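$ ./design --mode recover --in tokens.txt
reading tokens...
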């Protein structure tokens, strides 16, 4: 849908008016004539209005009237209509119903949706239109102000650029080869210079928004110049929350962008969502369904910012099944070229720079991305605010807060984990073996990369998931894998509801985890006698494990006995597993150590009596089957926190509570019955007796 504001001028016929209802002019000096003309225009709007043409492609609204002039807003679906056709329809209507001649059109401007809506509100205030909000809602344009996303619209330059100009613009932004190649394809003589729909969509990968915007600007201008876009309006959606699903507003955005483009920033909201594949799965499903629905006529440009990729991987891995997506990356250049880029950008912003300042704005090295160049520009600009324009702040002291240094390497974290001596040894062997394999490969001794798929067995709370996540980081740091991507999933994430869905879902997960680790928890739950789709999942997993054996590591995890039975029934799966890592239950001493670490992280200390009490609890609980290991310790500590709070308030009623009292946990805070905290107990709710 495209939106226009057009000025319509005309002259009244020379013959005296016989029928006052056919007058479209007025004499402001004659009482009541202006009001009568306004009423006739209001009646005109009632007959025209929403989807008034025979093919329903055009909506027409007169929002302002002066003598011999109408200001008209058009909403046109350019796939089925045109501005020229809309003007012809309006002219025929006016000639038929009013005594005017010599209709002319001027000031034909394409507008953004928000500006179009403002014109409608103006027409309502003049009593020319029915309530604007009703028109806006009926046209599906009321998608601004939704808290689940931010939307902004931009208008492209109103000019056509040549291939030479497109190349020049791309070179100016230090474009990557991927964009240069796409420009050549867009301008290729093999393409028809007429709009039929979108053969491909795009993913723009950049380190920050400025670098991504450069790519999008050159791309969309090139497409518009080759009639691959029907209008100038670009809709940008960002700050998408994990509740943005089943939103009619999103579908309206996609629908009204037909013939145009929608840019989707996949960073998500500013909150820390941890595993985006899990917390955004409903958003991913919804956006995939809507994008596939409108892909033929709405161009989608997906933006992945490398410093905050958000839900980009799971979304695109799912969309690639039914959409063709071309990847465009930000460019990079040598130090001298980037310095020239920085100077030019600073000059554009009105900032004078010295060569020395530009040199110092870059870190060491000889190759920099466009995103890094923009960071340098922003740094120079920020410094100039105080050093050039607001010199009074040049020497002012600012607040300095020291950040906690807590960035431990993944390998160090693994080694510091309580217990797991055999697990650490096996993981160490895996890493060492892979290092040697790489050395042999580099020397030409052996180029065959062996399978790295694994099985982790152990009871709940034995740190299988934590170790797998750390392993993904370690393998990436050691250069074993291409990415530190860690995708965690279970039966619900792999088995589809309908025939054919499961294989597609499994392949999407493998694409999502490409270059990293795919962690399948409780894998044996895939085999369910009540649902044959589980077998489809297993067969597809085996096939994908083989197809991606050099790119993706699959780790199956679950209970020891169930995993053994699972493998016994799937010989094809068993033959592809290279490593079996068993996670034993923690003993009482290890559980005590884990408790003290957890308490320390929360700022608590345990009295000697409390340590003794917990030792007794752990000795008892370790005799129970599947007692929860680390999860039991976390639950115990959480219950102790609540008991401690009650004790402190009761003991110090009306008194000032000191810091050391808040930090210390005593034996009575751990008064729980461990025998009731094991798997057999299925109570609901909380009790200090557990």
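writing sequence...
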């Amino acid at each position: 849908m495209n939106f226009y504001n057009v000025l319509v001028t005309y002259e009244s016929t020379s013959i005296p008016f016989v029928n006052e209802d056919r007058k479209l002019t007025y004499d402001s000096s004659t009482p009541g004539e202006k009001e009568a003309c306004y009423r006739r225009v209001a009646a005109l709007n009632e007959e025209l209005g929403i989807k008034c043409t025979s093919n329903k492609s055009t909506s027409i609204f007169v929002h302002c009237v002066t003598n011999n002039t109408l200001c008209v807003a058009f909403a046109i679906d350019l796939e089925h209509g045109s501005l020229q056709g809309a003007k012809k329809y309006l002219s025929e209507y006016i000639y038929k119903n009013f005594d005017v001649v010599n209709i002319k059109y001027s000031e034909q401007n394409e507008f953004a949706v928000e500006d179009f809506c403002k014109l409608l509100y103006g027409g309502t205030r003049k009593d020319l239109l029915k309530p604007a909000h009703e028109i806006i809602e009926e046209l599906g344009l009321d998608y601004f102000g939704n808290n689940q996303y931010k939307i902004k619209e931009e208008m492209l330059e109103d000019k056509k650029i040549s291939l030479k100009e497109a190349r020049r613009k791309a070179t100016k932004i230090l474009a990557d080869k991927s964009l240069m190649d796409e420009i050549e394809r867009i301008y290729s003589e093999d393409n028809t210079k007429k709009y039929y729909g979108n053969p491909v969509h795009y993913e723009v990968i950049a380190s920050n928004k400025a670098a991504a915007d450069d790519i999008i600007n050159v791309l969309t201008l090139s497409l518009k110049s080759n009639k691959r876009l029907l209008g100038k309006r670009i809709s940008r959606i960002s700050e998408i929350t994990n509740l943005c699903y089943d939103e009619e507003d999103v579908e309206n955005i996609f629908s009204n962008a037909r013939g145009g483009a929608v840019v989707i920033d996949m960073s998500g909201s500013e909150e820390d969502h941890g595993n985006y594949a899990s917390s955004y799965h409903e958003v991913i499903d919804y956006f995939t369904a809507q994008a596939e629905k409108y892909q033929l006529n709405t161009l989608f440009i997906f933006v992945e910012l490398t410093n905050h990729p958000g839900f980009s991987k799971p979304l695109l891995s799912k969309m690639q099944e039914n959409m063709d997506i071309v990847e465009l990356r930000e460019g990079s250049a040598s130090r001298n070229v980037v310095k020239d880029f920085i100077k030019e950008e600073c000059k554009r912003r009105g900032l004078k720079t010295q060569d020395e300042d530009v040199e110092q704005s870059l870190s060491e090295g000889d190759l920099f991305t466009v995103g890094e160049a923009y960071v340098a520009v922003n740094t120079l600009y920020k410094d100039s605010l105080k050093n050039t324009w607001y010199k009074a702040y040049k020497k002012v002291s600012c607040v300095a807060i020291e950040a906690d240094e807590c960035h431990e390497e993944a390998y160090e974290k693994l080694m510091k984990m309580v217990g797991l001596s055999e697990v650490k040894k096996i993981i160490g062997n895996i890493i060492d073996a892979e290092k040697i394999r790489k050395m042999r490969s580099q020397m030409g001794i052996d180029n065959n990369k062996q399978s790295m798929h694994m099985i982790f067995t152990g009871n709940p709370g034995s740190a299988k998931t934590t170790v797998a996540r750390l392993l993904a980081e370690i393998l990436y740091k050691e250069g074993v894998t291409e990415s530190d991507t860690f995708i965690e999933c279970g039966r619900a994430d792999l088995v589809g509801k309908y025939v054919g869905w499961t294989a597609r879902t499994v392949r999407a997960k493998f694409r999502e985890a490409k270059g990293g680790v795919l962690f399948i928890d409780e894998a044996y739950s895939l085999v369910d006698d009540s649902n044959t789709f589980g077998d489809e999942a297993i067969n597809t997993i085996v096939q994908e494990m083989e197809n991606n054996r050099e790119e993706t590591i699959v780790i199956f995890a679950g209970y020891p006995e169930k995993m053994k039975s699972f493998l016994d029934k799937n010989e094809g799966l068993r033959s592809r597993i290279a490593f079996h890592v068993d996670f034993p239950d923690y003993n009482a001493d290890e559980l005590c150590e884990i408790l003290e670490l957890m308490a320390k992280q929360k700022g608590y200390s345990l009295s000697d009596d409390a340590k003794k009490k917990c030792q007794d609890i752990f000795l008892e609980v370790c005799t129970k089957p599947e007692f929860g290991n680390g999860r039991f310790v976390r639950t115990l500590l959480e219950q102790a926190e609540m008991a401690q709070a009650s004790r402190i308030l009761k003991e110090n009623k009306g008194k000032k509570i000191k810091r050391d009292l808040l930090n210390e946990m005593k034996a009575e805070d751990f008064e729980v019955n461990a025998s009731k905290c094991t798997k057999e107990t299925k109570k609901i709710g909380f009790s200090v007796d557990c």
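exit 0
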